[in-house]
Amino acid sequence: MYLLIVGVALLLLKYLEVGPVAGWSWLVVLSPFGLAVLWWAWADSSGYTRRKQMEKMEQRKTDRIEKQRKALGLDRHRR
To answer: pLDDT digit string (tens) for 3-59?
Structure first.
């Protein structure tokens, strides 16, 4: 996501001819988009995306169970 934001910012600076970016090559300006594609390809092929998704779902499940326990008065930490 950060690479896309950097890419869009560089693209706007190049298009509007602002600062030193106006003199840069288009290859340099568009390189963050290529890096984003490479990152997504690696993340999908290595299982990184799936692992992060599963961690997030597990945390939501744990939070939901803890919220239900508190609602029933069955806190883990009894006084």
So the answer is: 999 999 999 999 999 999 999 999 999 999 999 999 999 999 999 888 989 999 999
Which among 35, 30, 29 has a CA at the least distance from the CA of 3?
A: 35
Q: Report the run of H or E that residue 20 belongs to, with start and end.
A: none
Side-chain-side CA neighbours of 47 within 13 Å: the count stands at 3
Burial 6-25 (b: 16+ CB within 10 A, else e): ebeebbebbeeeeeebeeee
Q: Indicate if the alpha-carbon torsion angle 27, 33, 39, 45 is positive or negative.
A: negative
Sign of CA dihedral 2, 5, 11, 12: negative
Smallest CA-to-CA distance from 13 within 29, 33, 35 is with 29
What pTM was computed for the model?
0.65
